[in-house]
What we know:
The structure is a homodimer.
Chain A: H1 22-28, H2 36-43, H3 46-58, H4 60-63, E1 67-71, H5 77-84, E2 89-94, H6 98-108, E3 115-119, E4 131-135, H7 149-159, E5 160-167, E6 170-178, H8 182-208, H9 216-227, E7 232-234, E8 246-252, H10 258-262, E9 263-271, E10 277-290, E11 293-295, E12 300-311, E13 316-325, E14 333-342, E15 352-358
Parallel strand pairs in A: 1-2, 1-4, 2-3, 4-5
Antiparallel strand pairs in A: 6-8, 6-10, 7-12, 9-13, 10-11, 10-12, 13-14, 14-15
Amino acid sequence: MASLPNGAAAAGGPSGAPVVDKEVDFANYFCTYAYLYHQKEMLCDRVRMDAYHSAVFRNAHHFRDKVVLDVGTGSGILAIWSAQAGARKVYAVEATNMAEHARELARANGVTDIVEVIQGTVEDIELPEKVDVIISEWMGYFLLRESMFDSVICARDRWLKPDGVMYPSHARMWLAPIRTGLGDKKMEDLDVAMDDWGQFVEETQVYYGVNMNVLSKAYRAEHEKFYLKSSIWNNLHPNQVIGQAAVIKEMDCLTATVDEIREIRAQVMLPISLDGARLAALAGWFDVHFRGSKQNPANEEVFLLTPSLKVSKGDSVNVSFSMVRSKENHRLMDMEFTYELHEFSGKQHPAITTKMYLE
Amino acid sequence: MASLPNGAAAAGGPSGAPVVDKEVDFANYFCTYAYLYHQKEMLCDRVRMDAYHSAVFRNAHHFRDKVVLDVGTGSGILAIWSAQAGARKVYAVEATNMAEHARELARANGVTDIVEVIQGTVEDIELPEKVDVIISEWMGYFLLRESMFDSVICARDRWLKPDGVMYPSHARMWLAPIRTGLGDKKMEDLDVAMDDWGQFVEETQVYYGVNMNVLSKAYRAEHEKFYLKSSIWNNLHPNQVIGQAAVIKEMDCLTATVDEIREIRAQVMLPISLDGARLAALAGWFDVHFRGSKQNPANEEVFLLTPSLKVSKGDSVNVSFSMVRSKENHRLMDMEFTYELHEFSGKQHPAITTKMYLE
């Protein structure tokens, strides 16, 4: 869909960044957040909820008598916690109509004199004062999908006092070598899809006199992207990890810039710690910190490596990684992994490059 | 999401019609058609394929040595058939990048000298000549969902010769009273969803100190819309129909206007032909004609009636129907059914009105 005129594509902005059509962005992105169903899904994520809950209440001194800005408040839970932790004033900004529900919720929880819900985007709204704390649950798959941190940066640059604090304060992205049967499963799915296509081509020729075979290659490419080149959200078992994990990106939320996250490039060496394993994928995840207290509110993304590699203890995998915003939709990410096996014996295998999509 | 600034909402155009933001429309609507997977799904619909195939080849005299315009050609199948049926020239218009595949397909099927694929919307493109035939597979759920017929009308008014023909030429929308267990099933699903919500509210209070109960009513409304007020695509068994079907809209594709389909209102009396049945839903479907040869390339939509009504042979149901384009997205439809049971005995029950969404 590279040339689909969907607004986010084609034209470049002053800094070479794609121009974002706000209306398209609303249609594509914000609208899901207007459903209570979706809000509930997020609120049922215990790991995430617990991380924020203890961050707020264990650091209540950061909130007591302070002014707080909650970026993308959704149903308003972080804003209410901030008020409960003693904030003098909480500005809770929400772009969708969920703002109305956040207002009701603040009322029902007796914090209506503290929590002020403002419907709008943080890029557009005005506040009557600077804030001491910015809190936000902005993390998408593999941290940066959704590109919502851009809005947090904007909020910080516009409204955070010089000595203000960010919740979360730091974030890291990780990669680790793993073994998994997922690749075989997906390959089987792809085979089934292609068998089905083959039958369709045959039938279309026989019944309708049109030869569709010329599209087989494109059909396969479309399905390879879907089955093999799209990251898979997954809960990993610790013993799937067959070597050392590495940080590919560290970020201080107080100083990070949009330029810094628009394109991420890293090269890491991942030592293998298990004998005779098959390196079938890389796992990616993130963790965030709240001023010292480490939290990991995220699940793993699996990036399949096809072909997989047979590896042994003592080998290392050299991984070059890049993640760039998709040209068609700035909230999605195009990734590229180059992986290269260095055997313990000194033998070095040729590098393999694979694209991967976080959609 | 009534006030979401998603482009299609709010502002009115010169005729009072909502202004369509083309970029948003592309993001929301056209992009699915850019996938071969989706094209294949449509091409695997035998009823639809057979209807068009026989329409073209049984009426080959309409195509022989004629100029044809295919509106929204997709993979190009109708354009190729038109060429195979003897057309002198076929302009195949496609907005998405599927146009490239249509070109390949035309080449592979040896009709590249006849089929000219033009990438663009039929509202924007220019043709070098007027056409004798417009062919298009524009029908959405319950005929009008997707509002693609607007584009066919535009194509007709811009490019069809005064004595040109339309494929299909006529379309009708039908309603019939049916019995079904779907409503009970959906009601159970709703109960499960609400039980789950109840537990969530309790846990959020206990674990996180926030009372979410104030949102229960809104959560129920959101889910009622999803489970009970959204039409359900379904294959009906003939003996589910418990009374007479009625045409609620007839349309001549040669003369129909956008104004005529923007809002549809009808009132029909549906006599019941089965004793002791429960009127649990209305079924809606459409059929289209190709210059005399009747075809029914569509499946049924089920519109649940909650509450359902106990009915008997000889009773009649008076149904008032309206279908208006959704303010938020002109391709979706908001419907309202008012149903009123007239017993054979003369007893008349109070009218019940229910909204229904075709999304």
